[in-house]
What we know:
- By secondary structure, this protein is mainly α.
- The protein has one domain (7-279).
- The protein is built from 14 helices and 2 strands.
- Helix 4 packs parallel to helix 14 and helix 10 (194-211) packs across helix 12.
- The model has no long low-confidence stretch (mean pLDDT 88).
Amino acid sequence: MLDERSVIWRYAGDVRGLLFLGRAFLLQVMHPTIGAGVGEHSNFKTDPWGRLHTSFDLVLRTIYGPQGERTGAEVRAAHKTIKGVGAGGRRYSAYEPEAYFWVLATGVDSVLAGAGRWFPALAPAEERRAYDETRELGRRFGLRDRDMPEDLTAFREWYATIVEERLEDNPTVRDFLEVISAPAPPRAFPRQLWPPLRLLGGHAGWLMTVGTAPAGVRDRLELPWSRTQEAELSALSRALRTFEAMPARLRYLPPAREAFARAKGQTAARARVVEDQLAA
Length: 280
């Protein structure tokens, strides 16, 4: 069950997770089905910030929203038209179970990879729970149990196989790497203030995207990675860990803050009911 006790609730809405979206998206579009679908049906090249906000907001609403199952069903319905013919004449559909689950798989893998380095470490039982909760999220998006590895051990084996045998370089990957290395400003942002932020943000985004990707992925894409870059990534990691001292109202994105507040209110209401019953 996804609620205030969930591992996924603890991590998905953390503002630091925004820095991992590039890593997840890179791995996603390296899958041939997702790469073809995004290349033909997404506006991420012309409006990367708008695409990021829309897509991630839907995921957060599915995780944290009081109508998460309904939102997940709406997301699945919206993907019905994402199909076509990709490279080599291969037909693809967003509903292919492997590709559909791969999107969620890159998310939970980013959490597991970041725990202990950018986020608080997870105990083995918490890692297993995080994956079980990902399966619950998959059900909200319309996946069947047989479409997802049954437990964390099976997931890690499946994930390694996908990375090794299915991921590939493609035009969408190259478009994304170009976008993230020199991001355009958000539509409402003053353009005269953007150049220094683009330089800083583009560099940080590149470090987090490329540096946290599996080494085999970097090799396949022929993306160089130096000791200097690794040192910069380590420094960024240390800075991210300081976020733990921030108040929750600053550390969590709005859908997560609202969900935790709603859960707190429900807990208080239940406590009052119990008190009234005991006093009767």
